[in-house]
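Q: Structure tokens for this one, please.
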Amino acid sequence: MTLISSQKRLQYRAENTRPIALISGAVEDVYMPPSLWIQYEALLSLEGISEADIAELALEEMPLQKGATFADCFRAVVTWRVNDWLRVTERMGLTVDTLGRQANDEEST
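A: Here is the predicted structure, written as tokens:
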């Protein structure tokens, strides 16, 4: 197992933290792993919602999750919405395998 230094960990965290503007004008820093930021960007495109919409949902979630921070709730809302999209694609029969086959079929034609 490779250990990383505290400096590298802090750098990684800083690189994966973004400021999120709240409706009040305040700004909250939110850390998410790179894969979740990618899913977040896709979510904005797929649903046509804004960062402000997700921030508002996260603020609504905070009283329901005792002790949770805004960042915790922001991550939870993103994960929840992404999981909804995954369920929809599964119901449609779309998986990584079927999408990969479709891409290969298109390339070969």
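A few notes: The helical segments are 6-15, 34-47, 51-61, 70-91, 96-108. The CA atoms of residues 36 and 79 lie 8 Å apart.
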